Amino acid sequence: MLIKNRPGWEMPESQATPESVFLNRRSFMAGGAGLIAGSTLPQVAAAQGADPTLDLYPAKKNAAYTLDRPVTEEDLAANYNNFYEFGTSKDVAAASKKLVSRPWTVTIDGMVEKPLEIGFDDLVRKLPLEERLYRFRCVEAWSMAVPWTGIPLKAFVAFAKPLSGAKYIRFETFLNPRMASGQSQRWYPWPYTEGLTIAEATNELPLLVTGIYGKPIPAQHGAPLRLITPWKYGFKSVKSITKISFVAERPKTFWEGLQASEYGFWANVNPEVPHPRWSQASEQVLGTRDRKPTLLFNGYGEQVAGLYKGLESERLYM
Ligand SMILES: Nc1nc2c(c(=O)[nH]1)N[C@H]1C(S)=C(S)[C@@H](COP(=O)(O)O)O[C@H]1N2
Ligand SMILES: [Mo]
Q1: 141 Cα: distance to centroid of ligand 1 (angstroms)
Q2: Cis peptide before 274, with omega less than 30 degrees from 0?
Q3: Is 27 part of a structural domain of the chain?
Q4: By Cβ atoms counted within 10 A, which residue in 1, 115, 242, 247 is the most buried?
Q5: pTM flag (> 0.85)
Q6: CATH code at 232?
Q7: pLDDT digits over 86-135, tens only?
Q8: Whose CA is nearest to atom 5 of ligand 1?
Q9: Which domain range does residue 63 map to?
């Protein structure tokens, strides 16, 4: 199962051949229809230039996760993003199309039984996928509510088989300034990294997200694989993950590296602890004129409050 592929993000864009182009060429040489007739669904999708995981959507809905507000309009969520690799404005959807998300290799390493490099399209078929409605809260005090499709992180951890010494998971985004011009800005500590404790990672809430609105996730939301931790500020939800490492020490995150006085490791949502630049007392709901009061743990206290017993002396909320 060890797949050694030079990841697309290590090559200049001009040299990277997305799998869809390769397969198109093959199906053309084989006479197109002939090849498609004997192929599996994902092969047909890829041969047609579509996402090779398209057949997995829409995934089964998990009805346990409900909302107290309407779902944010898809277009709105897709055009108001934070993805600093492609620019620091909210208008990065067009620029993020430069993201080459196939082929995409995920490295699983550190303190695990067997370190692994695996193609994203293989990984996603080895693990359960489901759709959940979650509220999402950025530290800039805007919020949205969206249907994510993903792998419960807990199931991924079981798949990775961490050793007992592993206390944290560290997530890392690609590093390729030729593909992502924001990464030429040297004052940022690229690549983007984030982390969770193993206890947080094996809680029921975090999702390794592969889709949104019942479809494979588009570039601007962090294709092909990103994290979602709905009780934490949005910056914990690292996009376009290429490496997941199990480690003994608390990893230093991208935002801590940039400004440790403003951003901590835990970053749990709390209306009573302001960020130096944004009060967290209320949030602006995207697409509405509503300002809603912020809830402790973004309303997910029932699921996660227990994780922080005995840690009250730590900077849990920023
Ligand atoms: N790699 C990477 N991941 C990232 C970011 C980023 O700039 N780069 N921004 C974070 C922030 S601040 C937020 S609010 C969310 C935004 O996710 P969305 O654009 O899908 O709504 O992504 C997070 N993950
Ligand atoms: Mo954010």
Answers
A1: 14
A2: no
A3: no
A4: 242
A5: yes
A6: 3.90.420.10
A7: 999 999 999 999 999 999 999 999 999 999 999 999 999 999 999 999 99
A8: 83
A9: 57-301
